[in-house]
Structures are given as C-alpha cells and as structure tokens.
Structure of ISXO2-like transposase domain-containing protein:
Amino acid sequence: MRSNGLLKKAKYCDNCKILCFQVRQSEKVDQCVFRCSKGRTKYSIRQDSFFSCSHLPLKTILTVMYLFMMKVPMKTMMKMLLGISSKTMVDWFNLCRDICSWRILEDIYKLGEDEDDIVEIHESKFGRKRKYAKESTRNQEGTWVFGMIGRKRQRVFIFAVEDRKRETLQPYMQAHIKSGATVHSDELSTYFNLKDIGYNHKTVNHSEEFVSAEGIHTYTIEGFWGNGKHHFKQIREVNRNLLGPHLDEIMYRGNYKNTDIVRKFFHDVTAKFNVNHDLPKDATNQYKSI
C-alpha cells in the first residue's frame, strides 16, 4: 500500500519535525503506529489517507473497494465479508463514489473537441414507478437526467435536472460541449435554438424514424441510459440527495470502461489523498511494506 501511495511512506513528527519510527502496538487494528523518538507522540499509519475514518482492517477495506469496482452485488459481499453491517458497507460504497465524483470534476475537457466527433444529447427519466400510484401522479415520479456523449471517445456527462426546459439544459451544453461542435438530438423544442448559440445542430424526428435519411441518430446516448438504469435496478431506492454520486459512478464507469478500471480507481484514490505531499522530494519508503 505504501509503494502505491495509499499510505505514507514516511512520517515526520508534527512537533519535532524529525522522522518517526514505526513501532508495534498490538492493541491497534493495524498492529503498529508511527512514534516520534523524541516527544513519544504517536500517529496512526492511516493518517491523511482514504482509510483514516475507519477502524476496519485495511485488508477488509481493500476487499470492499475491489468488489465495489467489480460490481459484485451487496448481498454477495455480505456473505464474503462476515461481520460487516450493511450500513458500514453502504458507507464505504458512498466513499468510493466520492472518488468517482472527484475524478469527474478533475477531468477538464469538452465534448466535440475533435473536428470529426459527433455529440449526442438526450434526456431520460430515472426512478421506479410505484405499482399502485394514481395515473395522475405517475408522470410526476422519478427524476429527469440529461446526458451528452461524444461518439468518438465515448466520453459522457450526465446530470440530474429539475425539468427539460431550455434555460435548464442549455447551461450544461455550453459548459460541456465545445462551441462549433456537431450535435445530434431528437426534436424536443428545448433544442431548437442550438444553431443560434454556435452548434452545428442536426435532428431526427423520433415520431417518424429512429435514424434519419442523413444518418442522424441518438442511439449511443440512449444505449447509455440502459446501462444507467440497470445500475439502479441492482440497488434499493436512492435518496434524491444521493442521486448525483450514483450518476457520477455511472459516468466514471462509462468514461473509463476501456481501461483497467480497478487499477484506475486505486490510482485515483492515491491522487486525491496525496498522502506524501508534505514529504521531502528525496524521501524514501522508511518502513516495512504494508
């Protein structure tokens, strides 16, 4: 874990500024701590890391992280990791989604940056319909999600939105689609002014056809909705306040699906926490590997 930057490779005392020793302390979950040789101050080996908020064994947390990224169902995890409550498991899932959210925010790019790329935009309603809901309320259930995807690189942005009005969706387009890009959509009236704001906009009328005679379609983003909705079918109802992190996870998995996503995820944990940021540039791993 130290060699991968998940734990500090060295620790200097906050007070004395001298290198701490790693000493055995059997009553601690990690069986060891950092200790200053002068002031005798002790520090957790998890200090400043992704693991600092938990008392679970490091091996257990790593297993949860790995299984989360492999999309192993929670019921299966509970059988594999006896002794961990469902609440603790959910808490760690949410912490893992925080990493996904952080990476999405850190990756600054716009769709349609390649001249030969096509950006598809579409909106879909997420949320389960209640079986016995009145007909008048069924259409009000769920949350609208707006999506944009670049065909060439298969990079995607999706956001929960209040409605499909022009003033709601247009800021997302301008923030995440390069001006001048080619944009394909259906004929929702919200999109009718896209040429006026600098996009090469082409449409397909879904009431008549799914692919126009010119080859205009939104199959890519609509296919992505299928993956997103499958994600929510695997879990219980999601609080509206937690919908964003779940959408970030879906984006993360979609944007990095062609990589070793487990390795990518652990690399992002290292990058976000940067536990060795305060060490001298020539500092080396001073302790036995963990």
The two ends are 5 Å apart (CA to CA). The mean pLDDT is 91.
